[in-house]
Amino acid sequence: MQLTQLPGTYNIIGSNQDQEAVTYKGTLELSLNETNRIIAKWIINDNQVQLGTGFFKDNILVINFNYIGDDDAIYKGVVVYKCITQDILDGFWSEKHGNPLYLGEERCFRQGIQQEVVN
Fold first, then answer.
1. CA-CA distance, 106 to 109, in Å (whole number)?
2. Which of 31, 52, 61, 70 has the smallest count of CB within 10 Å of its CB?
3. CA 66, CA 53: separation in Å to the nearest integer?
């Protein structure tokens, strides 16, 4: 897979970094900047915006992200995606102040791709 195949909009299904593994849905927009770094923008549950930058090598995408929480604090973390195909990303993530006993999980499907194919 090539870096230039990653940009696009993906539907996401994920679970949080806690014992309850609360689930969420949203979208992930990936684009490239002028130096071919990944620019990411997540919209979680239609109301939380998260931003990040990252890099890609050997079908692995790594993005450092941040967002402003409901308490107006800035939260930071990292997500690692394995690129299953150019249309499906399978990942896990952790926040700096999240529960270290757990990892969040996220699966991304390029918009227009049938999710049932990989379930």
1. 10
2. 70
3. 10
pLDDT tens string 21-31: 899 999 999 99
CA distance 28 to 79: 12
Residue 100's alpha-carbon distances to 28, 30, 92, in angstroms, are 24, 27, 13
Provide the whole-model pTM: 0.91
Cα pseudo-dihedral 36, 79, 25, 50, rounded to 10: -60
Distance (Å, whole) CA 42 – CA 11: 10
